[in-house]
Amino acid sequence: MNKTIATLTSVLVLAGACKEPLSAPSEDALVAGSAQPVQNLVTGVLAQDRGSANAQSLLLYSESMARNALRPDPNEPRFVSELIAVPSDPSGFVGSAGWNTYYTAIRAANSLLASPSLAGMPAADRNGVLGLVQTIKALDYIRLVQLRDSLGATIQTAQTAVPDPFRTKAAVLAYVSTLLDSANTSLGAAADTMPVVLPAGYKLNGDFSKTANLVKFNRGLKGEVEVYRLLDHQNPCTACSATAIAALNTVLASVAPSATSLKSGPYYEFNPSAPETVPNPIADPRIYVTDNWVQSIQAGDARAAKATKATAPSVTNGGLAQALQYKSSLTDPTNQTRPIAIRRAALWYLLRAQAEAESGALAAATADVNVVHTIEGGLAPLANFATLAEARAAILYEYRYSFLFEGGQYLVALRAYSGLTRAYVNLPGMPQIKSDPNHAIDALQSTLPIPQNESVARNGDVTPKP
């Protein structure tokens, strides 16, 4: 990314994230290996990760591009127009979203990994911190791929004088896969409990301050990356199916399917009160779910409770042809402290189902889909899939209804299965664009663009390189 801006931003954000008073000592003045500076640095990395991950770019924009939800705002039409009507402006707040924040988190992680305080810790403690921070760093790269897909991204290096080149999606995912393996090796050599205090959300649904559970988190991300590599349109990795299944088997081997276990994973928690003042970012009364999301749910699906008829329809700005009629309980402004899963077991089942389906193991894929379908949906189990197309359709359905406002999972799967087409967006109940000169063609945008400042920093060369 643009290194000059990123360097300054990462320092400022990291310092702010730690919430230390002005009298807090500089790390340079502390003895290497002492616990407190490492704790401060870890707190900063995790705070920055939460801030970057829960911006509307990931939680709302991905749902908007997938036609699940929109934020029609009478004062800001771009929340609609630049997500479903026309291509996003790469210099605007929508088009540039979720870029600098992710690289700020990555640079914060790199700073911690190079810290002399970390180097001086006892080996088991150091390995625990290394594994955790490398896993979080990998997570932020995954989010970059979720929002930019084939446009690629940069792999952050220590060189700050020259902007890093853009790399292909395949190159970024290969790097992240290796990074996760390195983190897993470190976690395997760590103590049973992390030597630093993790946020309370890491203990909300399972104790993910325990190294064994952090290994599951890490292997879940490994499986996710391998599924992305498997389904990469430009560089499909057929061997990644087996790698994904092996990683996800490690995660799910000790999981007995239940409503409780499907929630298992680390979570972000929110506090709208001072001094933190970080409310749940989608507790917003201007967010509506689309009529199609409501009308397409199967009869008897328990997840239908996520949406109810709004007391008043939305406005129709940004080129929107008709008002939206439904809101979600997940966006209720009274839910400002509602936690959001970073990753959870229901996702790991669906990822494994994807890998199984692509490898021809349709019965195994059916079994994994049915875990989510019957427990979270409350529906009768599906018969074994007869075709890959049938499996893909069922997987998409589960992503759509189990992971509303949890991240880009449905958009990623929709894109991987070439589902974001004219036929899809023209289904009854989908938001439609007014037929006027400014919105004559729906761009069917499935990614956010590369920010303009990143292009300028490279003299316009943002073509991804292997």
H/E element sequence: HHHEHHHHEEHHHEEHEEEHHHHHH
* Termini Cα gap: 17 Å
Q: Quick one: how many beta strands?
A: 8
Walk across the major sheet and give the strand order.
1-5
What number is the mean pLDDT?
Answer: 90
Sequence stretches where pLDDT stays below 50 over 5 or more residues: 2-33
Secondary-structure-derived class: mainly alpha
Helix content: 40-55%
Globular, elongated, flat, extended or rod-shaped: what is the shape?
Answer: globular
Q: Specify the oligomeric state.
A: single chain
Note the main attributes of this structure.
two-stranded antiparallel sheet; disordered N terminus; single chain; 466 residues; globular
Explain this structure to me?
46% of the residues lie in helices and 4% in strands. It has 17 helices and eight strands. The radius of gyration is 22 Å and the shape is globular.
What's the structural blueprint in terms of helices and strands?
Layout lengths: L2 H16 L16 H19 L2 H10 L3 E2 L7 H8 L14 H14 L2 H4 L3 H26 L4 E2 L11 E2 L1 H20 L22 H20 L9 H13 L14 E2 L19 E2 L1 H5 L11 E3 L16 E3 L11 E2 L3 H14 L3 H14 L12 H15 L6 H8 L5 H4 L26 H6 L9
Antiparallel strand pairs: 1-5, 2-3, 4-8, 6-7
Helix pairs in contact: 1-2, 1-5, 2-5, 2-7, 5-7, 7-8, 7-9, 8-9, 9-10, 9-12, 10-12, 12-13, 12-14, 13-14, 14-15
Give a concise summary.
The chain is mostly helical and 466 residues long. The chain has 17 helices and 8 strands.
